[in-house]
Amino acid sequence: MEQLIKAAEIFVKERFKEEVTGHDWLHMERVRRQSSLIWEKEKIGDPLYVDLVALLHDVDDRKLAYVDHALTLKDWLVMMDVQQDLISKLLTDTSNISFRKGNHSLLSPEALIVQDADRLDALGATGISRAFAYGAKNGQMICKEGDFTEQNQNGGTDSTVAHFYDKLLLLKDRMNTKTGREMAEQRHRFMRSFLCQFEKEWKE
Ligand code: ADP
Ligand code: NI
Questions:
Q1: What element of type H or E holds 85?
Q2: How far is the CA of 94 from the centre of ligand 2 (A)?
Q3: Which is higher by pLDDT, 150 or 85?
Q4: What is the pLDDT of residue 153?
Q5: Which residues line ligand 1 at a C-beta cut-off of 6 Å?
Q6: Helix, strand, coil % (nearest 5) of the chain?
Q7: What is the pTM assigned to this prediction?
Protein backbone atom coordinates (compact mmCIF):
# COMPACT_ATOMS: atom_id res chain seq x y z
CA MET A 1 0.00 0.00 0.00
CA GLU A 2 2.89 2.43 0.75
CA GLN A 3 4.09 2.16 -2.84
CA LEU A 4 0.63 2.81 -4.24
CA ILE A 5 0.35 5.88 -1.99
CA LYS A 6 3.64 7.24 -3.37
CA ALA A 7 2.43 6.66 -6.94
CA ALA A 8 -0.92 8.29 -6.11
CA GLU A 9 0.89 11.37 -4.80
CA ILE A 10 2.74 11.80 -8.09
CA PHE A 11 -0.38 11.11 -10.21
CA VAL A 12 -2.64 13.48 -8.28
CA LYS A 13 -0.05 16.24 -7.96
CA GLU A 14 0.44 16.30 -11.72
CA ARG A 15 -3.27 16.07 -12.47
CA PHE A 16 -4.41 18.87 -10.18
CA LYS A 17 -1.44 21.21 -10.38
CA GLU A 18 -3.28 23.84 -12.41
CA GLU A 19 -6.79 23.44 -11.03
CA VAL A 20 -8.25 26.83 -10.09
CA THR A 21 -11.64 26.10 -8.51
CA GLY A 22 -10.28 25.03 -5.13
CA HIS A 23 -9.68 21.40 -6.12
CA ASP A 24 -5.96 21.86 -6.60
CA TRP A 25 -3.15 19.65 -5.28
CA LEU A 26 -3.10 21.65 -2.04
CA HIS A 27 -6.75 20.68 -1.46
CA MET A 28 -5.77 16.99 -1.74
CA GLU A 29 -2.85 17.58 0.65
CA ARG A 30 -5.04 19.40 3.17
CA VAL A 31 -7.71 16.70 3.02
CA ARG A 32 -5.03 14.08 3.57
CA ARG A 33 -3.63 15.95 6.57
CA GLN A 34 -7.01 16.64 8.16
CA SER A 35 -7.97 12.99 7.58
CA SER A 36 -4.82 11.89 9.43
CA LEU A 37 -5.61 14.22 12.31
CA ILE A 38 -9.13 12.78 12.56
CA TRP A 39 -7.80 9.21 12.29
CA GLU A 40 -5.30 9.90 15.11
CA LYS A 41 -8.21 10.74 17.42
CA GLU A 42 -10.74 8.20 16.20
CA LYS A 43 -8.44 5.27 15.33
CA ILE A 44 -11.02 3.70 13.04
CA GLY A 45 -9.87 1.56 10.11
CA ASP A 46 -6.55 1.45 8.28
CA PRO A 47 -4.63 4.78 8.24
CA LEU A 48 -2.89 3.90 4.97
CA TYR A 49 -6.21 3.33 3.27
CA VAL A 50 -7.37 6.71 4.68
CA ASP A 51 -4.35 8.30 2.95
CA LEU A 52 -5.17 6.61 -0.33
CA VAL A 53 -8.84 7.66 -0.35
CA ALA A 54 -7.87 11.22 0.62
CA LEU A 55 -5.40 11.48 -2.25
CA LEU A 56 -7.73 9.96 -4.84
CA HIS A 57 -11.14 11.28 -3.74
CA ASP A 58 -11.52 13.93 -6.49
CA VAL A 59 -9.86 12.14 -9.42
CA ASP A 60 -13.18 11.21 -11.04
CA ASP A 61 -15.02 14.44 -10.22
CA ARG A 62 -16.81 15.24 -13.48
CA LYS A 63 -17.24 18.93 -12.81
CA LEU A 64 -13.48 19.39 -12.99
CA ALA A 65 -13.57 20.15 -16.71
CA TYR A 66 -10.30 18.69 -17.92
CA VAL A 67 -11.29 15.24 -16.64
CA ASP A 68 -13.05 14.46 -19.94
CA HIS A 69 -9.87 13.56 -21.71
CA ALA A 70 -7.93 12.33 -18.70
CA LEU A 71 -7.56 8.83 -17.27
CA THR A 72 -10.39 7.69 -15.03
CA LEU A 73 -9.48 6.49 -11.57
CA LYS A 74 -10.29 2.96 -12.67
CA ASP A 75 -7.93 3.23 -15.70
CA TRP A 76 -5.15 4.41 -13.43
CA LEU A 77 -5.70 1.69 -10.79
CA VAL A 78 -5.72 -1.01 -13.47
CA MET A 79 -2.56 0.46 -14.96
CA MET A 80 -0.96 0.27 -11.51
CA ASP A 81 -1.88 -3.44 -11.25
CA VAL A 82 -4.03 -2.91 -8.19
CA GLN A 83 -6.04 -5.95 -7.07
CA GLN A 84 -9.64 -6.06 -8.19
CA ASP A 85 -11.18 -6.00 -4.72
CA LEU A 86 -9.15 -2.92 -3.73
CA ILE A 87 -10.17 -1.24 -7.01
CA SER A 88 -13.86 -1.90 -6.29
CA LYS A 89 -13.54 -0.62 -2.75
CA LEU A 90 -11.74 2.56 -3.84
CA LEU A 91 -14.25 3.25 -6.62
CA THR A 92 -17.20 2.82 -4.25
CA ASP A 93 -15.61 5.07 -1.64
CA THR A 94 -14.42 7.85 -3.95
CA SER A 95 -17.65 8.00 -5.93
CA ASN A 96 -19.80 8.37 -2.80
CA ILE A 97 -17.89 11.02 -0.86
CA SER A 98 -19.57 13.94 -2.64
CA PHE A 99 -22.15 16.02 -0.73
CA ARG A 100 -24.70 16.01 -3.54
CA LYS A 101 -24.31 12.76 -5.42
CA GLY A 102 -22.89 10.49 -2.76
CA ASN A 103 -24.66 7.58 -1.09
CA HIS A 104 -23.41 7.89 2.42
CA SER A 105 -24.41 4.36 3.45
CA LEU A 106 -21.91 2.83 0.99
CA LEU A 107 -18.85 4.50 2.53
CA SER A 108 -16.20 2.52 4.42
CA PRO A 109 -15.20 3.79 7.91
CA GLU A 110 -12.03 5.26 6.38
CA ALA A 111 -14.00 7.12 3.69
CA LEU A 112 -16.30 8.58 6.37
CA ILE A 113 -13.17 10.15 7.87
CA VAL A 114 -12.08 11.52 4.48
CA GLN A 115 -15.58 12.87 3.87
CA ASP A 116 -15.29 14.83 7.13
CA ALA A 117 -11.89 16.20 6.07
CA ASP A 118 -13.24 17.14 2.62
CA ARG A 119 -16.09 19.00 4.31
CA LEU A 120 -13.73 20.77 6.69
CA ASP A 121 -11.93 22.09 3.62
CA ALA A 122 -15.21 23.62 2.42
CA LEU A 123 -15.51 25.52 5.74
CA GLY A 124 -13.62 28.35 7.43
CA ALA A 125 -11.31 30.78 5.65
CA THR A 126 -10.23 28.01 3.27
CA GLY A 127 -13.82 27.18 2.40
CA ILE A 128 -14.68 30.84 1.81
CA SER A 129 -11.74 31.27 -0.59
CA ARG A 130 -12.60 28.05 -2.41
CA ALA A 131 -16.26 29.01 -2.79
CA PHE A 132 -15.46 32.37 -4.39
CA ALA A 133 -12.81 30.81 -6.64
CA TYR A 134 -15.29 28.15 -7.76
CA GLY A 135 -18.03 30.73 -8.27
CA ALA A 136 -15.84 33.01 -10.39
CA LYS A 137 -14.58 30.19 -12.57
CA ASN A 138 -18.15 29.03 -13.15
CA GLY A 139 -19.53 32.45 -14.09
CA GLN A 140 -21.54 32.78 -10.90
CA MET A 141 -22.31 36.14 -9.30
CA ILE A 142 -20.82 37.00 -5.90
CA CYS A 143 -24.21 37.87 -4.47
CA LYS A 144 -27.75 38.69 -5.56
CA GLU A 145 -30.53 40.63 -3.87
CA GLY A 146 -31.90 38.77 -0.85
CA ASP A 147 -29.17 36.13 -0.68
CA PHE A 148 -28.19 36.60 2.96
CA THR A 149 -30.84 34.30 4.37
CA GLU A 150 -31.66 30.63 4.79
CA GLN A 151 -35.28 31.34 3.83
CA ASN A 152 -34.34 32.13 0.28
CA GLN A 153 -32.83 28.77 -0.54
CA ASN A 154 -34.47 26.07 -2.58
CA GLY A 155 -31.44 24.01 -3.53
CA GLY A 156 -30.71 26.02 -6.67
CA THR A 157 -27.54 27.94 -5.87
CA ASP A 158 -27.05 30.76 -8.36
CA SER A 159 -24.68 33.03 -6.48
CA THR A 160 -21.75 32.25 -4.25
CA VAL A 161 -23.30 33.87 -1.18
CA ALA A 162 -26.42 31.72 -1.77
CA HIS A 163 -24.16 28.64 -1.83
CA PHE A 164 -23.25 29.32 1.81
CA TYR A 165 -26.91 29.06 2.86
CA ASP A 166 -27.63 26.28 0.42
CA LYS A 167 -24.79 24.00 1.47
CA LEU A 168 -21.84 25.30 3.45
CA LEU A 169 -23.72 26.31 6.60
CA LEU A 170 -25.35 22.87 6.73
CA LEU A 171 -22.12 20.90 6.75
CA LYS A 172 -21.25 21.12 10.45
CA ASP A 173 -24.38 19.14 11.37
CA ARG A 174 -23.56 16.45 8.85
CA MET A 175 -20.13 15.44 10.06
CA ASN A 176 -19.60 11.71 10.59
CA THR A 177 -17.09 11.66 13.43
CA LYS A 178 -17.04 13.36 16.81
CA THR A 179 -13.59 14.80 16.03
CA GLY A 180 -14.79 16.14 12.68
CA ARG A 181 -17.79 17.75 14.35
CA GLU A 182 -15.58 19.50 16.88
CA MET A 183 -13.20 20.73 14.16
CA ALA A 184 -16.12 22.00 12.06
CA GLU A 185 -17.56 24.07 14.87
CA GLN A 186 -14.84 26.76 14.85
CA ARG A 187 -14.76 27.00 11.05
CA HIS A 188 -18.53 27.30 10.98
CA ARG A 189 -18.46 30.18 13.47
CA PHE A 190 -15.82 31.97 11.39
CA MET A 191 -17.96 31.59 8.26
CA ARG A 192 -21.02 32.97 10.07
CA SER A 193 -19.04 35.96 11.23
CA PHE A 194 -17.69 36.52 7.70
CA LEU A 195 -21.24 36.48 6.30
CA CYS A 196 -22.44 38.83 9.01
CA GLN A 197 -19.69 41.37 8.22
CA PHE A 198 -20.20 40.91 4.46
CA GLU A 199 -23.93 41.55 4.75
CA LYS A 200 -23.32 44.61 6.93
CA GLU A 201 -20.93 46.08 4.35
CA TRP A 202 -23.29 45.40 1.47
CA LYS A 203 -26.15 47.11 3.30
CA GLU A 204 -24.42 50.12 4.84
P1 ADP B 1 -18.68 17.68 -3.05
O2 ADP B 1 -17.35 17.10 -3.47
O3 ADP B 1 -19.01 17.46 -1.60
O4 ADP B 1 -19.80 17.40 -4.00
P5 ADP B 1 -18.10 19.99 -4.35
O6 ADP B 1 -16.96 19.34 -5.08
O7 ADP B 1 -19.35 20.34 -5.07
O8 ADP B 1 -18.46 19.19 -3.08
O9 ADP B 1 -17.57 21.28 -3.69
C10 ADP B 1 -16.24 21.42 -3.42
C11 ADP B 1 -15.89 22.86 -3.25
O12 ADP B 1 -16.45 23.63 -4.32
C13 ADP B 1 -16.45 23.43 -1.96
O14 ADP B 1 -15.50 24.23 -1.33
C15 ADP B 1 -17.66 24.21 -2.41
O16 ADP B 1 -17.95 25.28 -1.60
C17 ADP B 1 -17.30 24.63 -3.81
N18 ADP B 1 -18.52 24.75 -4.59
C19 ADP B 1 -19.29 23.78 -5.13
N20 ADP B 1 -20.38 24.29 -5.74
C21 ADP B 1 -20.31 25.65 -5.57
C22 ADP B 1 -21.11 26.76 -5.97
N23 ADP B 1 -22.23 26.60 -6.66
N24 ADP B 1 -20.69 28.00 -5.61
C25 ADP B 1 -19.56 28.19 -4.92
N26 ADP B 1 -18.75 27.19 -4.53
C27 ADP B 1 -19.11 25.94 -4.84
NI1 NI C 1 -12.50 17.28 -2.39
A1: helix 84-95
A2: 10
A3: 85
A4: 56
A5: 22, 98-100, 122, 127, 130-131, 134-135, 140, 157, 160, 163, 168
A6: 70, 0, 30
A7: 0.93
Residue in 84, 199, 78, 88 with CA at minimum distance from that of residue 146:
199
- CA–CA separation, 91 and 12 (whole Å): 16
Distance 44 CA to ligand 2 centre (A): 21
Q: Is 141 helix (H, G, I), strand (E, B) or coil?
A: strand
Our mutation pick for probing the ligand 1 site, out of 26, 134, 172, counting the most ligand atoms within 8 A of Cβ, is 134
Neighbour tally for 68: CB within 10 Å: 7
Which ligand 1 atom is the nearest neighbour of the CA of 127?
A: 14
pLDDT tens per residue across span 164-183: 999 999 999 999 999 999 99
C-alpha dihedral, 190 to 191 to 193 to 195, nearest 10°:
160
Higher pLDDT, 66 or 105: 105
Q: What's the maximum distance between 2 C-alpha atoms anywhere in the chain?
A: 60
Segment 12-28, tens digit of pLDDT: 999 898 888 888 999 99
On the CB side of 20, CA atoms within 13 Å amount to 4
Ligand nearest to the CA of 30: 2
Could you give the 3-state DSSP secondary structure of residue 159? strand
Q: How far is the centre of ligand 1, averaged over its atoms, from the C-alpha of 159 (Å)? A: 12
For the CA of 100, the closest atom of ligand 1 is: 4
